[in-house]
Write a structure and sequence with these properties.
With 246 residues, this protein is mainly β. The protein has one helix at residues 222-234; strands at 2-8, 11-15, 20-23, 28-32, 40-44, 54-59, 71-75, 82-83, 92-98, 100-101, 104-105, 114-121, 125-130, 135-140, 144-148, 160-162, 167-171, 176-179, 187-192, 197-204, 212-214, 217-219. The chain has a 6-stranded antiparallel sheet, with no helix packed on it. Strands 6-1-4-7 form a 4-stranded antiparallel sheet, with no helix packed on it. A 3-stranded antiparallel sheet has the order 3-2-5, with no helix packed on it. A hairpin with a 4-residue loop joins strand 2 (11-15) and strand 3. It is globular.
Length: 246
């Protein structure tokens, strides 16, 4: 499955089954491509007077035994509900793309367990997000300073300062922190030390299966990839329209 979330500008997409559309700023597309396969194209919108596109695309591993037809779940910015850890007038807004935050549920119901939040700190503040038994990823999309509670581990692309009581992350945009998933860890504690801090928090269920990727194809074994490549070349098993001009 792929989840495309546009933070700025928009992205157009279409497939050979006739589905097409545009993901606008603050909108999301949740696409699950299953056993029947789909040829899908997407391109950020660029042009004079249009801000540079900024978005995130998450690839989610689905259980191998799930065999369904390709599905799309698409929400505009007004259709993604917001949660507020300190009330609507408080400094923190959480866009609930999927999952549940502070008693607010997303209308997206993906196959496989995955929670996806866009957290906006208008002012300096702190919050706790329940995660339960999932592995987690936090991705900073704005100038961010955040404290991650003791017991979590983090992977980032910048400086790491460790004190006796916490791990301190400081730097510019696009840092990724891979968090731990211990039995006694039930969520993530975030504290913004600057106004207008934004982060995306993602949690997903771990699957006990191999992931084998080649180009745009993601399967569980090398043999499945080889078979898929032959199917694509021969135009069969879901790829019947793969070589038609669009």
């Amino acid at each position: 499955a792929t989840v495309t979330y546009m933070a700025h500008s928009s992205s157009r997409q279409e497939d050979l089954a006739g589905h097409r559309g545009e993901i606008v700023t603050g909108g999301v597309q949740w696409m699950c491509a299953y056993f029947n396969t789909v040829i899908h194209a997407e391109m950020p919108v660029r042009g004079p007077g249009i801000p540079d596109p900024q978005g995130l695309q998450l690839w989610i591993d689905l259980p191998k035994e799930v065999i369904l037809r390709t599905t799309y779940q698409e929400l505009g910015p007004s259709e993604i509900p917001s949660a507020f850890s300190e009330g609507p007038e408080g400094p923190i807004e959480i866009k609930v793309i999927s999952g549940k935050s502070h008693s607010v549920d997303s209308p997206v119901h993906p196959q496989g367990s995955c929670w996806y939040f866009h957290i906006k700190f208008r002012k300096v503040g702190s919050m706790f997000q329940d995660i339960h038994e999932f592995n987690s990823i936090a991705h900073a999309i704005s100038h961010t300073s955040a404290y991650i509670a003791v017991g979590w581990t983090a992977f980032i692309y910048s400086r790491l300062f460790i004190t006796a009581e916490s791990i301190f992350i400081e730097g510019g945009p696009f840092h990724t922190l891979v968090l731990s998933s211990g039995q006694n860890e039930t969520g993530v504690a975030l504290q913004a030390t600057e106004d207008e801090t934004e982060a995306v928090l993602i949690a997903g269920e771990s699957l006990d299966q191999m992931v084998f990727q080649y180009g745009p194809f993601v399967m569980t074994t090398k043999e499945e990839i080889q078979k898929t490549l032959i199917d694509y070349q021969m135009g069969r098993n879901g790829f019947e329209k793969a070589h038609l001009a669009v």
